[in-house]
Amino acid sequence: MSLLKNNWNHNYLYTNGVRLHYVSEGEGSLMLMLHGFPEFWYSWRHQITAFSGYYRVVTPDLRGYNYSDKLQSVQLYSISELVEDIAGIITNLGYEKCILVGHDWGGAIAWYFADKYPQMVEKLIVLNIPHPAKFMQGLWTPKQLRKSWYIFFFQLPILPELLFRWNNYQAIESAFIKMAVDQSAFSDEDIQAYKKSAAKPGALTAMINYYRCFFRQILKAKKSWNRLDIPTLMIWGENDTALGKELTYGTEDYVTDLTLKYIPNCSHWVQQEKSDLVNQYMADFLEISLS
What is the pTM of this model? Predict the structure, then answer.
């Protein structure tokens, strides 16, 4: 069966002034999974069914992505707005807290959310995204600056969108296939799904506006971080071409209860490329059995 046509529940909710689309499966405590760039809820396709026997798994399209609302103003993609979206998702679904899982941009939002609303996070799982304080430190190093060249390119108007649209969204395909160690992890159907999502009117600009707004924010203010007491699992594909493994070093300075799992021969797209191993590490951390 096509994973895009699986018998998962598609629905919408309103939070923080936006209409968000989400996919869900299962019952019980809430497990909320936040995707990254240039993805959508579908990047959790290997995790939804795996964990829905234990939790109500909810995978939203973040604001601006896929079927969720696309807003015009760059300022409406600030990290503070994104954090409030997540708070609204949890309460709108009838919960007070969740197990929060995030990859890439979704992981960045998860870090900020856990810092502001620790009482709403039972456990935190982040994949291939460093603690924001470590990322900011990394941006001062030549090695990470070279890896993060695209953040500066995304500050340009119009041109990034044109590049992504060129040659039938070839840049979307390249982002997955060329970065992956195991390219067979992405089927033609997977790539077409990501292209179709990015091609929705207004989606590309919304997705890139995350970077435009974040760049403006980091130039304005320096954030102080609380030391996180939430049990936290960090999973890291070691062959990430966008984020260096060294960004994980010293995370324990910001997290009291940290479990760190490195996965060799694996790219940034860790939960898609090594889904079975990622699911096992998550299950061990959550003290459940997937067998």
Answer: 0.97
